[in-house]
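Quick note —
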Amino acid sequence: MSTKEYRRILLDGDSVQTTLEGNELVTKDGRSIDIEEAQHLPPTQPSKIICVHLNYESRVNEYITKLPPAPTYFHKPITALNSHQGEVIRPDRCKWLNYEGEIAIVIGRNCRNISPKEAKDYIAGYTIANDYGLHDFRDTDAGSMLRVKGSDTLCPVGPGLITGWDFHNKGIRTIVNGKVMQDANTNEMEWDMNYLVADIARNITLQPGDLLLSGTPANSRPVNPGDIVEVEVEGLGLLSNKIVHGDTPIRDDVGAQPSSSEEVVSTAMGGDWEFRGQRAAGGQGAKFYKSSIEKK
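Predicted structure written out below.
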């Protein structure tokens, strides 16, 4: 099956769906917009964003852990949604913002209580995602990661929705300021796209446009304001975002405050603190890193 790419852009103040034709984005009424001039929007409007914790073999090995017998998940609020070329905000007083290059599944129709074999018929297509984590808040929220993964702007997706794409044996890379930081293949995944959809749909109805993020490979690391972070997936294109400093600080008169505890630093720098409870007996202890990033 041949692939086709659809992109949502802002045109004359309206959200417009376009089709990619060469270097042009073409609207249903025949208007053409140069791809470099377009103001991108997320390619879908989800009612929910669901993400799997561990799925790539390299990530499991990095954390010196074992996979659970079945996938575990967390939820990003839709207010975290961002787009291709959108700015990703690292709030003032925070310094542990990590990229996580991923592939996002886009649901095409209402999906409930299906088998993995049936799941492909409920998938509209795929897009690229970057599941940013603000680890400064890892000590809060009792493990839900609500603020770690759900803060505003921390879920850029795009640039387009690709239909007819086969997820098997595809390369995925994350590039920071021109340097490859994550480099993996979808064959590393323990649970494929169809399995993830069927698993969630057992007791949560998935609706058209919903996003399921399928996991990240090893080497998620912190980035800083000014950095350009790109996620490139074979056959899906390239998602690019710039990290910016948030001028509005995290308020200090309410709630838990950003921290740099051992858990925060270890997780942000690739240690195994987050998954200590899942390691087999006799595994290595948590790795603790001190980094020059603390000076930035």
